Amino acid sequence: MKIVKTDKAPAAVGPYSQAVIAGDLVFCAGQIPLDPVTGQVVAGGIEEQTQRVCENIKAVLAGAGTSLNKVVKASVFLKDMNDFAGMNKIYASYFTSDFPARSTLQVARIPKDCLVEIEVVALLK
């Protein structure tokens, strides 16, 4: 098991790692729309927040030595399922072919009252 840590994505704000490599898999912790420089939630709605989340995931995966095109499973957590179309529009700009399996759920609350959180599992090779 190898711990992934990059300064290109928000630092972990609790007792967890940005990602963990186990065998040929990378388990990326859920990312919320925090700016990696300021540590603050980005301004805007679901589209801006989803873009920041995807950029954070992209950075964590790069730190692990892999990329978005190696993602096999994504879990999306939305504060409001009415935001699905806006999230999906941005998500589709990051995952353009050979789509990963995905679950999307509405949850009661996301840290820092964000609109979206996404976690992924990716292949290392």
Descriptive account of the structure:
- A 6-stranded mixed sheet has the order 1-2-3-6-4-5, covered by helices on one side.
- Helix 1 packs parallel to helix 2 (84-94).
- With 125 residues, it is an alpha+beta fold.
- It has helices spanning 46-64, 84-94, and strands at residues 2-4, 19-22, 25-31, 71-78, 101-106, 116-123.
Tell me the layout of helices and strands.
Elements: E1 2-4, E2 19-22, E3 25-31, H1 46-64, E4 71-78, H2 84-94, E5 101-106, E6 116-123
Parallel strand pairs: 4-5
Antiparallel strand pairs: 1-2, 2-3, 3-6, 4-6
- CATH class equals Alpha Beta
Distance between the termini: 15 Å
Number of individual domains: 1
- Approximately how much helix is present in the residues? 10-25%
Counted beta strands: 6
Q: Architecture, according to CATH?
A: 2-Layer Sandwich
Give a quick account of the main beta sheet: strands, pairing sense, barrel closure: 6 strands, mixed
State the CATH topology.
60s Ribosomal Protein L30, Chain: A
Task: Write down the oligomeric state.
Answer: single chain
Number of helices: 2
State the shape: globular
Low-pLDDT runs? none
Q: How are the strands ordered across the major sheet?
A: 1-2-3-6-4-5
Task: Give the CATH H-level superfamily.
Answer: RutC-like
Compute the average pLDDT: 97
